[in-house]
Known about the structure:
Layout: E1 11-14, E2 34-37, H1 51-61, E3 70-72, H2 76-79, E4 82-86, H3 97-106, H4 110-115, E5 117-120, H5 124-136, E6 140-144, H6 150-158, E7 162-165, H7 170-184, E8 187-188, H8 195-211, E9 217-221, H9 226-238, E10 243-249, H10 254-261, H11 284-290, E11 296-300, H12 302-316, H13 326-332, E12 343-347, H14 355-368, E13 372-380, H15 385-395, E14 399-406, E15 416-424, H16 428-441, E16 445-448
Parallel strand pairs: 4-12, 5-6, 5-8, 6-7, 9-10, 9-12, 10-11
Antiparallel strand pairs: 1-2, 3-4, 13-15, 13-16, 14-15
The structure holds pyridoxal-5'-phosphate.
Residues 95, 124-125, 192, 221-228, 276-277, 279, 321, 323-324, 349-350 line the site of pyridoxal-5'-phosphate (PLP).
Amino acid sequence: MKDLNKKPSFQEFPDLHKTTMETTNVPVQTQDNMIPVDPFCKEDNPNKITFEDITLAAFKIKSGIVNTACTRSQMSHATGMELYLKKDFLQKTGSFKERGARYALLMLTEDQKRVGVISASLGNHALALCYHGSKLGIPVTVVMPVFAPIMKITACRQYGANVVVEGLDMGEAKRIALKQGQEKGLTYINGYDHPHIMAGQGTLGLEIVEQVKDVDAVVVPVGGGGLIAGVALAVKTLQPHVQIIGVESERCPSFTAARAAGHPVPTDIHSTLADGLAVPMVGYNAFATANSLIDKMVVVKEEWIAVSILKLVEHEKYIVEGAGATGLAAILAGQLDDLKGKRVVLLLCGGNIDTTILGRCLERGLVAEGRLLKFTVTISDRPGGISELCRMLASIGVSIKDIMHERAWIISDVFSVDIKVVCETRDSEHSEQLKEMLHQNYRNVTFGGVTLEPMMKLRSLNN
Ligand SMILES: Cc1ncc(COP(=O)(O)O)c(C=O)c1O
């Protein structure tokens, strides 16, 4: 890695030369029409980190970071893999981001530490920076876009950081942060592309190799690419035969797009359950470090992320955010079947999920698995019609969550009534049994919602 403390001054480029970082809806017109760029992350001169950077990071952050457990999963038998879960959601602020944040802070010069740092982030990087800034006595400013979760904004403030809530999206928040950094002499720390951040995240790879013998593959969620860059370099240096597999949500596949183009490119992104991965363009340094070390990239559907969050709650009792559950999503969706029979480590790298979103994910997961169903059935409006339907459902052990009947709006015949039911089944086979029974007994039955065709069924968990 280059000497990062040498002349870390900001440079200015005309707006025309604005880096393609983050697609933006509303470009910021700075007063002088100049937008500062991050001196640590340059398109024309990317900075690759080395294995030694990671070992130095491991030594430096050891006392301030939890060496989280990596244990065999309850889902090993069901998935047909020797599955190990690296539980970095158990760091103090709920994510692996603390590793890079602490290391980047520790590596500042005394002058830089005194003046402080600035960054733009939606959540995990901001939390990590604010927490370790408070521990190390380094002033931290974070710019969070206006839609950042209030819970995370409050938590950052509680760590005594200067939290600026500004910018309609991450691109705008970043430009504001770079500008403020330049004006106030603060060091800008990119959450995925700063070389010290990547080196810090790489310590996860060192721990995995030490904790699990004979690993065949490590599955890594990918946002801006800093995590996979560090982990891939650490693991491949120590054990070159281990496969490194990156996973993205279908709604923000920016690393996959960069691989196709041969360099980072702006990618359309949409709201996703894996909000931690919603980076429109991967980092130049991260891409340069990681690309040749990655064996495969996989893009997963949102529904499988919801199912994975549900499975982790049900079978492991872990609360993991969408980004952290993408590795399991790829496995459950059957996209990594070539790893069956192998020893696979999944990074459960974050647990910061809003309770309301968690509730929605659990429900979506149940729907996607075919365990929560909604249907409308037309039955006879004579006394006993509804009770007959309820008896039928009870006879096969289906539990009714909600039931409503509608009389006035149906147009067929006045002696009929539409019944809308939301019910819970044990699994997709049980749902099939229900569907068959309803079709046998009623002429008019329609089912709503999207059920995933389970490519892989979770079998007995008694392994
Ligand atoms: C929980 C979680 N997992 C994975 C990632 C991806 O890390 P990176 O942006 O370094 O690729 C992030 C990024 O914020 C995250 O918050």
